[in-house]
């Protein structure tokens, strides 16, 4: 009886241990393109422009202030003239006027705050930047959806393709893989204002800005971390030399 209880306990422990990995394995694999994230100020400034003009209408960035954009090379005057359109002050948070209750009625769900979106979307399939870069390039026309758009990465998404004028209109067809499974292939049916290469670069700049916005002090943090490790390495050498000096006469 005792052995039976022990065996049952071992089986339960094994199930609890491996259940998360089995759940992940059971889910469909998601292919994400690697995002060419840039730290170049020009790319970040272009990404900020795209974010304010196309994203900030529905999505807020309520943990970011406009004046923080000075850290990517913009002056207060440039921020006021090019990125502020409704009488905000340069020290204000990047919020929107749309109420979450109204957004839920219009889109089915309130659009998420995007301040930390590049960190929140990280998964076993890739970084949050990879997810955003792939998602923003894989919208396609779908007359069965309320907005007229769907997305390969986020099926039946409530968000319309706000960048369609830049990218154009893609259409989808179902293709078969060698193993018999199926996947969606996209083709450009109506060109946009930008070529495919130009659009991909624009999305890379937008994603780079979203990554920066998620942690504006990332480079400073890494630099401080490097200094701390160098200090600890030096302290270890001095401590070891002191230890040897104290114990040199002890046998």
Mean pLDDT: 87
* Percent of sequence in beta strands: 5-15%
Largest sheet descriptor: 2 strands, antiparallel
Placed side by side, the strands forming the largest sheet appear as 1-2
Number of strands: 6
Q: Please mark out the parts with pLDDT under 50 across 5 or more consecutive residues, or reply none.
A: 15-27
Give helix % range: 40-55%
The assigned structural class equals: alpha+beta
Order of helices and strands: HHEHEHHHEEHEEHH
Query: What is the 3D form?
Result: extended
Total helices: the number is 9
Cα Rg: 25 Å
Distance between the termini: 57 Å
What's the structural blueprint in terms of helices and strands?
Blueprint: H1 2-26, H2 41-55, E1 61-65, H3 76-83, E2 93-94, H4 100-107, H5 117-120, H6 128-135, E3 139-141, E4 149-151, H7 164-167, E5 168-176, E6 182-191, H8 196-214, H9 218-247
Antiparallel strand pairs: 1-2, 3-4, 5-6
Helix pairs in contact: 2-8, 6-8
Task: Write a structural description.
- The chain is an alpha+beta fold and 251 residues long.
- Helices cover 48% and strands 13% of the residues.
- The chain contains nine helices and six strands; from the N terminus they run ααβαβαααββαββαα.
- The strands form three sheets. The protein has a two-stranded antiparallel sheet.
- A hairpin with a 5-residue loop joins β5 (168-176) and β6 (182-191).
- α2 (41-55) crosses α8 and α6 runs antiparallel to α8 (196-214).
- The longest helix has 30 residues, at 218-247.
- It is extended, with a radius of gyration of 25 Å.
Supply the key terms.
alpha+beta; two-stranded antiparallel ribbon; extended
């Amino acid at each position: 009886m005792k052995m039976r209880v022990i065996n049952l306990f071992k089986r339960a422990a094994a199930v609890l241990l491996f259940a998360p990995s089995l759940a992940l394995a059971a889910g469909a694999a998601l292919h994400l393109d690697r995002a060419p994230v840039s730290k170049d100020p020009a790319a970040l400034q272009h990404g900020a422009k795209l974010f304010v003009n196309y994203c900030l209408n529905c999505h807020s960035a309520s943990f970011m202030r406009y004046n923080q954009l000075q850290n990517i090379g913009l002056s207060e005057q440039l921020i006021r003239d090019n990125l502020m359109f409704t009488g905000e002050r340069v020290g204000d948070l990047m919020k929107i006027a749309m109420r979450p209750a109204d957004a839920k009625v219009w889109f089915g769900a309130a659009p998420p705050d995007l301040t930390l979106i590049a960190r929140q979307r990280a998964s076993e399939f890739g970084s949050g930047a990879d997810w955003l870069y792939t998602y923003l390039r894989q919208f396609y026309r779908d007359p069965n959806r309320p907005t007229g758009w769907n997305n390969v990465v986020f099926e039946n998404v409530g968000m319309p393709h706000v960048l369609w004028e830049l990218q154009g209109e893609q259409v989808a067809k179902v293709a078969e893989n060698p193993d018999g499974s199926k996947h969606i292939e996209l083709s450009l049916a109506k060109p946009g204002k930008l070529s495919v290469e130009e659009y991909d670069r624009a999305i890379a700049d937008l994603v780079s800005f979203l990554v920066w916005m998620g942690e504006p002090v990332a480079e400073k943090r890494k630099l401080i971390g490097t200094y701390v490790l160098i200090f600890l390495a030096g302290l270890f050498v001095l401590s070891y030399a002191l230890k040897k000096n104290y114990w040199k006469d002890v046998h």
